[in-house]
Automatic annotation (TrEMBL):
Taxonomic path: Bacteria, Bacillati, Bacillota, Bacilli, Bacillales
Keywords in alphabetical order: Carbohydrate metabolism, Galactose metabolism, Isomerase, NAD
Protein's name according to its UniProt entry: UDP-glucose 4-epimerase
CDD domains assigned to the protein according to its UniProt record, in alphabetical order: UDP_G4E_1_SDR_e
Reaction equations catalysed: UDP-alpha-D-glucose = UDP-alpha-D-galactose
Pathways per UniProt: Carbohydrate metabolism; galactose metabolism
Listed InterPro entries: Epimerase_deHydtase, NAD(P)-bd_dom_sf, UDP_G4E
């Protein structure tokens, strides 16, 4: 059985929808930002917090867990600058408890959700895993600290892990049944689509004076199902005892500016956006674009969906969700 911590969240719920086709799955989630209705009905769901040692011990004693996928965290870059305590306590402190219980119960396989925010301000146009890690926010720092803890545990306690540095997760499941649902929503693509769907008055661009071709920040958007598939490949590799420990970027290798994203959303939906320019947001590097060559070479992962497919899938989810009404989840 695979334990998915944070499996009721955006990325975790998409992973679970794919993973249940291959493995028995138990999801634990405190529902602080996730939604139980996003969890596939073929997975076991238990509400609880990964910082709660006795809760975890009960779970590990009751289920035959052979690997952990760890998505549970707070992940808003701007919020982490204002409330670092929340980020270090949950992202680092609670992860320590999860690792403690994993080791106690002899569970030696871990897949961890890290982030491009570990790189800080990039010194290269395309970032590979050898790029220096100098995070500029408590969020990025908290994820880097966990990466380092995991690497030390791997050396000392034979923990086998993959840490994935996701770039910007986006899009929704092909079924249209689940998608991104954060409250408040802070991510660019869902904000633009909510506006175009008529549930938000306008879109604000956070700064148009960056050192990029059109002055707005560039990001590498990667479809959430492509991320899910990378997890499944990594899990298979870990369970087969192949590559024991690794850090991999997950991105498409192409950067899109905030303005380009807004224009692409307008083109694909046929709706014109009402846009204004606001001040820069705390902790935003100008450009974050991945090289994912390492995982391509080592595990054969290549992303299958481009920016248009990402936006179309997210739009389908927004239409579906709107038709269900906002109180359904
Ligand atoms: N969304 C992105 O673009 C992105 C990019 C890079 C990295 N990440 C990382 O990927 C992971 C998932 O991100 P997401 O966008 O799905 O976020 P999310 O907020 O939708 O999901 C996180 C889930 O973890 C749960 N959770 C949080 N703290 C918990 C705790 N102490 N105990 C139990 N459950 C807890 C939440 O309720 C939620 O369901 C996070 O670790 C995030 O840092 C996300
Ligand atoms: O209303 C908005 C929302 C966002 N943006 C801009 O759009 C870009 C993308 O912002 P998102 O909030 O969608 O994503 P982030 O790049 O801030 O962060 C995401 O990717 C990071 C890694 O790249 C982290 O891992 C983080 O967890 C994850 O949320 C940024 O330049 C942001 O300033 C706007 O201009 N207006």
């Amino acid at each position: 059985m695979i334990l998915v911590a944070g499996g009721a969240g955006y990325i975790g719920s998409h992973l679970v929808k794919e993973l249940v086709k291959k493995e028995k799955v138990i999801v634990i989630d405190n529902l602080s930002t996730g939604h139980q209705k996003m969890v596939d009905e073929n997975a076991v769901f238990v509400k609880g917090d990964i910082g709660d040692k006795s809760f975890l011990e009960e779970i590990f004693a009751s289920f035959p867990i052979k690997a952990v996928m760890h998505f549970a965290a707070n992940s808003l870059v701007g919020e982490s600058v204002l409330h670092p305590k929340k980020y270090y306590e949950n992202n680092v402190g609670s992860t320590m408890t999860l690792l403690h219980v994993m080791l106690k119960y002899g569970v030696k396989h871990l897949i961890f959700s890290s982030t491009a925010a570990t790189y800080g301000i990039p010194t290269a146009g395309i970032i590979d895993e050898t790029h220096p890690t100098l995070p500029i926010t408590p969020y990025g720092q908290s994820k880097l600290m966990v990466e380092q803890i995991i690497q030390d545990y791997a050396k000392a306690y034979d923990l086998r892990f993959v840490s994935f540095r996701y770039f910007n997760a986006a899009g929704a499941h092909d079924s249209g049944e689940i998608g991104e649902l954060h409250s408040p929503e802070t991510h660019l693509i869902p904000i633009v689509l909510q506006h175009l769907a008529g549930v938000r008055k306008k879109v604000s661009i956070f700064g148009d004076d960056y050192d990029t071709p059109d002055g707005t920040c560039m990001r590498d958007y990667i479809h959430v199902t492509d991320i899910a598939n990378a997890h499944i490949l990594a899990l298979e590799s870990l369970l087969e005892g192949n590559r024991a420990t690794a850090i991999y970027n997950l991105g498409n290798g192409q950067g899109y500016s905030v303005k380009e994203i807004i224009e692409t959303c307008e083109r694909l939906t046929g709706v014109k956006a009402n846009v204004d320019v606001f001040e820069r947001r705390n902790g935003d590097p100008a450009r974050l674009v991945a090289s994912s060559k390492k995982i391509e070479q080592e595990l054969g992962w290549v992303p299958k969906r481009n920016i248009e497919q990402i936006i179309v899938s997210a739009w389908k989810w927004h239409q579906h969700h709107k038709s269900l009404g906002t109180t359904i989840l």
